Structure formats: C-alpha cells, structure tokens
Amino acid sequence: MDGGIMKSQGIPFWVWVCLAGVVAFTFVPLSSRFRAEQSNRAVELSAEIDSIEQLAAGQQLSLVEALDRLKRSGLGAVVVSEETLDDVAKYSGDLRIESLPEGAGTRILASQGIADRLAKGLQVRFGNARVQVAPLPDGAAEILVVGYHYATLRGVSLGLPPQWTSVVRSSGLRVIGRMSNPLGANPESVRGSIEWASGQGMAVFLPQGEQVLGRREGLDALIESLRSKGLLYASPEFVKIGGDSNVLREAPDIAVSLHSAQTAELDRMASSEIVERYVRAGRERNCRILLLRPATFSSEAPLEDFAKLAGGIRDGLIRSGAGVGPARPFAPVQTLPFLPALLCLLSAPVAFFAALAITENRSVASLLTVLLLISGAATLTGAFVSYAALALAVLFPVAAFVVCERLEAALPVRFLAVSGVSLIGGLCVAAVLTSPEYFVRGAVFSGVKLSLLGPIALVGAAAFVRYAGGWPSLKQPATWLQLSLGLLVLAAFGMLAIRTGNDNPSAVSDLELRFRAMLDALLYVRPRTKEFLIGHPMLVVSLGLMALHRSGNRKVGGWLALALALAWIGQTGIVNTLCHLHTPLSIGLTRVAVGLMTGGILGGALWLVARRALRPGGA
C-alpha cells in the first residue's frame, strides 16, 4: 500500500464533494437541453406524391381527395421530386428531340409548359446557355439550344413538377422538395435551383441520390440559399449521402432529421410494428419528419389503408407526448463558459483517488491526473472537447469500481451508488457535447467504443489481479469449464465491440427485433439488453460475491473477477446510453432507470440462487 489514502479503506469525504460538484455543473447545460427538447417534440408526417397518386387511383379518387383524406389522418407534408428532361421525355408524348448536325445544338418540340420549364432549367444550370424559345401555331413551342448535345441536356432539371406543387399547396400541405446533385453543378446553379424551388413553394429541402446538391464546392451556396429563403434541410436517418454530415455540422439551425422505411423492411412487419417503429423514431431519436410508405401494395382500399396507417402513427405520437405538427429545428442550448475544463478540474481529485486505489502507485496516479487536467486545459483553445469528454467517460466507470470495493453499505445501496458514479460519466458527456448539431447527428461522440470497452478492460484486469490470482494463475492447468467460460466471455466482448459505435455494421436479428418490440410494449422505455440482462444482474452478484470474499471465502475469487468484468458491461452501458446525443435526455435517463430496476430485480433473483449453490454442501 502507498500513502495515507490506501491505508484507510472507505471513500474520503472530499471525493463525494467533488462528485457532487461535477453533477451540479452539468445541471445548467442539461436543463437547457431538456427545455429545448421538450419545446420541440412535434413530428411532421409526410408521404411521396407519386405513391399518393397511385393509391388514390386504386380507389378512383382524385389527388385532391386523396390529399384531403390523408391530411385528416395527420399528414402535414408531401415529398415532391424534381424532374429532369429525360424523366419528362418518358411520359410526355408531345416531346420531340432532334440533335442538330455537326454538334450545333439540339432542337426540341414540346408543349409550352414544358418549354418554359426547360428554358428556366437551362438558365439555372448553364446561366449563359444560348436558348431560343419560339411559340408554334398549335400551342406548342420550339426550343433551340445552341452548342449543347442532348446527352448533356437530358439530365437538366425541369424543377419540381408545378402540377403537383400547386395541388399540394392548395391542399394546405407543405412541399418537401427532393433534389439531386447534377454533374457539373456550380455554386451559382445551386443558388438558382433553390431559389426556383422556393418560388414553387418548397418548404423543406431533401437531398436525393448519392450526394447533396452542391457537394463539394457548392455546399456553402446551398446553406446560404436555404437560410435566406427560410427553408429547412431534412437529413435522412441511417442513409449515407455525400455532404449530408457537412451540412448538418455547418447549419444545425436549419436542419431536421427525417426517418423513412424501405418497402422491403415494412413487408416483414405487422401493422402495429410499423406504427411503433415510426413513433419510436419521433419520440426517441428526435426525428422531426417521418416519411411514410404504404405497408402493402395491394388491398381492397389502398388509400384508406394508408390513411389508417398514418392515423395510427399520429395517435401513437400523441399518446407518447410528442404530437403532430410542422417540423422545426432545435433552439440553441445554454451552456457554461469553459465547462469541459471545469469538469476536468473538479474530476481530477476523483481521478487521483481511483487511480491510486487501483494501481497502488502514486506516480502513476499523478501522471493520469495530470493527463486529465491537460485534456481539460486543451479545451480552452476551443478544440479537443471530444477528448475531454472521452476522458471523463472512461474515468467515472473506473471510479465506480473503487466505490464498489470500498463502500460499506447494504447491497441495494452499493448497487445504486456504483451505478450513480458511472452515470456521472454519461452526464459529463451529455453536458459537454450539448448543442443542436449533436441532436441531428451533425456531430457525434467519436469515443464511443473506447468509453465502452476501456473501463471493462481496466476493471476486468484489476479484478483478475486482485481476486483471481493474477498472472501466476495463468500458469496453472485449466479445466474444461474455465476454457469454455473464457471462450464464451471473449465471444461476448467481441460481439459487444462489433455492435458498438455510431455506425454499427452489425444487423439486428429478427428475433432480437421482436424481443425489443415486446419490451417496448411492456415498458415505458425499453432498457438496453446488455445492461438489464447481463451487466446489472452481474453487478448484484458481484456485490454478493465480494461480501463472501471479504468474509474469508477465497474460493469465490475467480467467479468474482468474472462477474465484475461482466458487470461493467452494464456500467459502461449507462455512460454509453447518454452518449447517444440524438436521443432526448429524458428518454436516456428513463432508459437507465428502467434498466437498473429490471436488472436489479433479475440480479437479486440470480444472487439468491447463486448464494444457495455456494453454501458448503449447497444444492
């Protein structure tokens, strides 16, 4: 043992004071974030215009009648995609295109309406395009485009179809314009495209294809145009689009998240599951626009069925407290000057205490504490905030391990105290990284994997040394049970590593999805599986085994070390839950509380069985 701290067991009073100080200083930004989230809970339901038109045709209804029916079911906006000359050529029978000899240009015969749209599109796209439009006696028009071959003209945007934008607007619904990034677009054409769409009534811009309009050099022009016209930018959730993250990062003040589902996904789900999926997106992931798609292609009354689906989602949102209304961005969040540095300063004594208790080396503890202070000081430059958040996210679950070992109290009190210290790490991340760009995924906490796996590795190693004999025990012959458990634990941690992160590549199985749906139906907020089924029950067992170990039963040391390593899956899971910065704070905290309650009950039952089995001559 080293120093006065280690000579006396227990937890010094000043450690609790520092912990209370950290919690107090996270209160200001977190309370501001809570108010911003609570004041912006309305979700806007939307659908695609071509789907609505086809569903209406299935019931011999007009588009106006269909929009009116869907509006009464909660629909607030309609997605209208821009058309290109090539798109129009596929359905317009009166469109004729002729390439002039020797590359002189292209001659197009079209209706006057299409001619006007093409002339506008050419002017927006090429600016100085030499275009001549001449009316013909039969009401059509001749467009002569000098110097451009049809291969170039076919991708020219004709803007949003005016016949659809006008009927959507006259139905009292908002237009969500879906636009692509054409090859060769420049900042001027980006500005012109947005101004044109705005003039057609577009309220929300939705990117289409693999890149956002203006990617790369024209993104500033896009953001500037959207702001100047008072338009919103909708970012599709779970979809990779080039330039999307740039816009979210640079312009969170005009950005909202949009959730949609593919037809293939909906086809595998029951109607109730579809409703639940959309409601969860609005309630738990801050998606402010839901793009609805029909659950099935065929039915007796396809539009009516779609209206019922929309109505079910609307009712679900209202029951959840979110409500239905026009989408809007989140308001800025109030924070404290130099908060990351302040939190690191207040956490430094805790870091020293925890490091000294685990390593029993004052030099190592001092070095780690200095590193924490340096990470905090570095944030004063305005950068490195994410590194400070990562340091705090790792520190508190590790400090919770020391509390687990040293706190003298009844088992339930120790269970809550250990989890509470870990929770402080999550509160720090949520407080330090609180701003609208995190709400819409414009920025994410980049240390998710390390904050989740790092404390588990540190606590697992410390527990192995303290309770399982450390390195010398590895030289002893192993039993088949030990080998099997070792492989099982490695597989579990490998799966945890794969499935953790902001871009989780591992698909969730149908069985797990159904299990989650069952939990969603039974509980107000679904707890995280790894917390309430593994981590928290094993923490209860760990606390029980630790009491046996203290009483002199050294035979439980190996089991205690294993249980502690598994228990810290739950502890780091608590921090990780609050690292999902797009999830409302109220949902994250409730999820932690529900996980602790259910996991604690399961752990209590498990410990009763384990304690009986561990008694001398027990069953």
TrEMBL record:
Pfam family, one: DUF5693
Residue stretches spanning the membrane: 13-31, 338-358, 370-403, 415-435, 447-468, 480-498, 532-549, 556-575, 587-610
InterPro entries: DUF5693
Coiled coil: none
Highest rank taxon of the organism: Bacteria
Keyword annotations from UniProtKB, A to Z: Membrane, Transmembrane, Transmembrane helix
Name of this chain's protein: Uncharacterized protein
Organism: Candidatus Nitrosymbiomonas proteolyticus
